[in-house]
Amino acid sequence: MKFPRGATVVDCGGLVITAGFWNSHVHILTPSLLHAEKLPSDQITSQLEDMLTRWGFTTVFDIASVLENTTLIRHRIESGEVKGPRILTVGEPFWVKGGTPVYVRGFLEANHINIPEVEFSVQAIERVRQQIRDGADGIKIFTGSIGSIERGGVLIMPVDLAKCSDS
Questions:
Q1: Angle at which helices 67-78 and 41-51 cross, to 10°
Q2: Is the residue at 2 inside a domain?
Q3: 125 and 165 share one domain
Q4: Is 4 inside a domain boundary?
Q5: Same domain, 83 and 149
Q6: d(C-alpha 153, C-alpha 157), whole Å
Q7: CA pair distance 27, 7, nearest whole angstrom
Q8: What's the angle, vertex CA 100, arms to CA 71 and CA 39, rounded to 5?
Q9: Do 87 and 97 belong together in one domain?
Q10: What's the pLDDT score for residue 126?
């Protein structure tokens, strides 16, 4: 068998080789990965290994995080500075005014993370456009969220916001 010049050949006799696994529901929103601009490469690599790569995940879809932080981690992986999986991301999710989920509110406050709530379709449209420009691979909307236990029930996103249209 001929191999390309410079190729690394690994003897896998007696071993099993599989395709890398995808995980389509991760959050690059853990305290240990926040503020990636201040974190050493080996710390990020270690955190990504603990969360993802040791389980065989070679590609992940992050469905809620701080977009700027996640794209920085992604760029550090792509440059070879950090070892980690391919990351696709939606960045900051969209929820209606008053609809920040009660189960994440304390975490966001404690970590000084502001994810704006949307009230008008014009805001939603501009935020979608900005997130795509900033590197998001998709958009996540909470069409229904428990914004307040005191008020009870689920806060539903109006259809015009979900569609990002004026109709």
A1: 100
A2: no
A3: yes
A4: no
A5: no
A6: 13
A7: 35
A8: 30
A9: no
A10: 93
Q: What is the pTM of this model?
A: 0.83
| Of 41, 61, 91, the domain-final residue | 91
Tell me the two tokens of residue 51: 């969360």
Q: How many domains does the chain have?
A: 2
Model confidence over 41-77: pLDDT tens digits? Answer: 999 999 999 999 999 999 999 999 999 999 999 999 9
What pLDDT band is residue 152 in, cutting at 50, 70 and 90? low
Using an 8 Å Cβ cutoff, are 67 and 92 in contact?
yes
Supply the range of the domain harboring residue 148: 93-167
The answer to whether 98 and 51 have CB atoms below 8 angstroms apart is no
From 58, 91, 124, give the residue that closes a domain. Answer: 91
**For 93-125, what is each residue's pLDDT tens digit?**
999 998 899 889 999 999 999 999 999 999 999
> Could you give the percent of the chain with pLDDT greater than 70?
95
Domain assignment present for residue 14? The answer is no
- Please name which of 76, 75, 60, 4 lies closest in space to residue 28, comparing C-alpha atoms: 60
